[in-house]
Design goal:
about 250 residues, alpha+beta, 2 domains, 10-stranded mixed β-sheet
Length: about 250
């Protein structure tokens, strides 16, 4: 009778050990499969990749509005010589684009010219209620001066709005980034992500159409991390578009 009790106790101890081992194995599986430290690390790497893309594909743009306080309609264009405005816009060594803005907010493309003496000229439009001056390295130089423009002066002929500085995604840099993924991927990956893994991206318009995308296929069976966010993209004609970008890390 005593022997049977000892046998039962021995079996109970074995079962406890087996249960404990199984429990440890289950915990190990959970930790390996859902490692919170790994997820946190990968999120940090993905955030770093997104930040690097934002910094390298962005371009600084300064914008100011000019409103007339006198009659400009006697000429086809006006000329403004305002060193303070050009300096405040940081436009001394950057190119400009000037557009007219309708009452409904739509913009009108105009002829314009920026000279080396910090003056600039632009075409007058009867549909424009104000004129928007953009300044950025994204834009190309204006070609030739306009003729017969009226010289106008601040306050007596026009008022200047608040200067707004904003960083946009560059349309040209996005295209270059897409091309480099196809032609110079290893160097690009090292530059943006180091040894953290492979990268990819895509940019879509508001209708979901792909504008830019990577050309590197994602291997099957590989975990892919992704982050999608809205971006404002500006092109060399100062057209601003609302897109979404998704960045991949795998």
């Amino acid at each position: 009778m005593v022997k049977k009790i000892s046998d039962v106790r021995g079996i109970g101890h074995v079962e406890m050990i087996i249960s404990f081992v199984l429990f440890l194995g289950f915990l190990s599986f959970i930790f390996i499969a859902f490692n919170p430290l790994k997820v946190e690390k990968n999120n940090a790497v993905l955030d770093s990749l997104v930040y690097s893309i934002e910094e390298n594909l962005g371009v600084d743009v300064s914008r100011v509005s000019i409103a007339s306080t006198s009659d400009w309609t006697d000429k086809n264009c006006v000329k403004i010589k305002n060193d303070d405005l050009i300096n405040d816009l940081k436009c001394v060594n950057r190119n400009i684009i000037i557009k007219g803005e309708k009452i409904n907010g739509d913009e009108i493309n105009l002829e314009y010219f920026k000279s080396s003496d910090k003056s600039f000229e632009f075409e007058i439009s009867s549909d424009a209620v104000i004129y928007n001056l953009y300044c950025s390295d994204e834009f190309g130089p204006s070609t030739s001066p306009l003729s017969g423009c009226k010289n106008i002066n601040e306050k007596s002929d026009y008022n200047i709005g608040i200067i707004v500085d904003k960083k946009y995604y560059s349309d040209k840099k996005l295209e270059e980034f897409e091309n480099r993924i196809s032609s110079d991927y290893d160097a690009l990956k090292k530059e943006y992500a180091g040894s953290s893994g492979d990268i990819g991206f895509e940019v879509r318009d508001i209708e979901g159409q792909i504008i830019y995308e990577d050309k590197k296929a994602t291997p099957k069976g590989v975990d892919v991390m992704a982050k999608t966010f809205q971006i404002d993209v500006i092109d060399e004609s100062a057209n601003i578009k609302d897109y979404s970008m998704t960045v991949y890390l795998f």
